[in-house]
């Protein structure tokens, strides 16, 4: 019932999904109809054999070791999830471990959260990620170098260097502004994200499934021997997930359409704006 209410709300948003970017629409509907036996085998083999456990207390090395007995049951569960458009509640539980990154360990600002998800969730997400990425990869902005196969901070820097050299060769300087979105992954609005996915041609069944995947996720903070009470995330893509980064770059994909008078390069949520400066007025633009 709650999912239907949210779906109605996001459908009524005054946002067309592509914000004027003509290249942002996939011709055919983006949909994920089923999972095959082979789809399940690969992500299990790619799991890291770790003793670390999430809220379900199941380490990944057990899943890898028992994979031949788990593949078919997981296949049934994954397809049932897609058919009913419901992501299992137990796989939406996240274990948060605060880790001191530097400085005074008594200051909470010096800690960063590490999210540990169920390995079953990560297997399922890996399958969905691959299927979704293969359908939307051609509409992802070429300015984006984060979470894209064969692209990296190195390719991002190479592109900027090429622009700098071209600008110098033409007798101009190149000015750049470096920005970073504050709490970018945590502040994504579910309704706007789903509306954007609708705008690129996502099938309603996929959107409803993603709504179930994103909403009502339970988080627990583990600190030494203490465990917090449950709290629920109301925005953002799941930290530590396989699917979250792809959803994020699709969310900000139309950002490049806004900058008509300057170039831009992205690495996930890091944005560089740049432009050739020949005259003083150029710097205003």
UniProtKB/TrEMBL annotation:
Ranges in coiled-coil conformation: none
Write down a Pfam family by its short name: RVT_1
UniProt lists the gene as: X-elementORF2_431
- Protein's UniProt name: Putative RNA-directed DNA polymerase from transposon X-element
User: What GO MF terms are annotated?
Assistant: RNA-directed DNA polymerase activity
By its UniProt entry, which InterPro entries does this protein fall under?
DNA/RNA_pol_sf, RT_dom
Where in the sequence is the signal peptide annotated? 1-20
**What are the alphabetically sorted keywords of the record?**
Nucleotidyltransferase, RNA-directed DNA polymerase, Signal, Transferase
Q: Which residues form the Reverse transcriptase domain?
A: 80-285
């Amino acid at each position: 019932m709650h999912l239907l209410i949210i779906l109605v709300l996001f459908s009524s948003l005054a946002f067309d999904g592509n914000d004027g970017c003509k290249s942002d629409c996939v011709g055919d509907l983006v949909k994920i109809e089923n999972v095959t036996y082979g789809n399940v085998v690969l992500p299990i083999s790619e799991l890291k054999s770790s003793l670390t456990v999430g809220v379900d207390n199941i380490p990944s090395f057990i899943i890898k070791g028992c994979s031949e007995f788990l593949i078919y049951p997981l296949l049934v569960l994954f397809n049932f999830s897609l058919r009913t458009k419901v992501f299992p509640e137990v796989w939406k539980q996240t274990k948060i471990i605060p880790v001191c990154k530097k400085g005074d360990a008594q200051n909470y600002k010096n800690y960063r959260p590490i999210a540990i998800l169920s390995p079953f969730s990560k297997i399922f997400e890996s399958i969905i990620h691959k299927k979704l990425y293969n359908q939307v990869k051609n509409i992802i902005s070429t300015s984006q170098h984060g979470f894209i196969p064969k692209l990296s901070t190195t390719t991002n820097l190479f592109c900027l260097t090429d622009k700098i050299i071209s600008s110098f060769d033409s007798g101009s300087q190149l000015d750049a502004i470096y920005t970073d979105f504050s709490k970018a992954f945590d502040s994504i609005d579910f309704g706007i994200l789903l509306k954007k996915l609708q705008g690129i041609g996502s099938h309603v069944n996929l959107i409803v499934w993603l709504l179930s995947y994103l909403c009502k996720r339970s988080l627990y903070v583990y600190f030494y021997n203490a465990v917090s009470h449950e709290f629920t995330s109301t925005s953002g893509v799941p930290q530590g997930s396989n699917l979250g980064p792809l959803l994020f770059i699709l969310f900000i994909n139309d950002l490049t359409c806004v900058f008509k008078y300057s170039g831009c390069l992205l690495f996930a949520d890091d944005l560089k704006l740049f432009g050739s400066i020949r005259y003083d007025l150029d710097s205003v633009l």
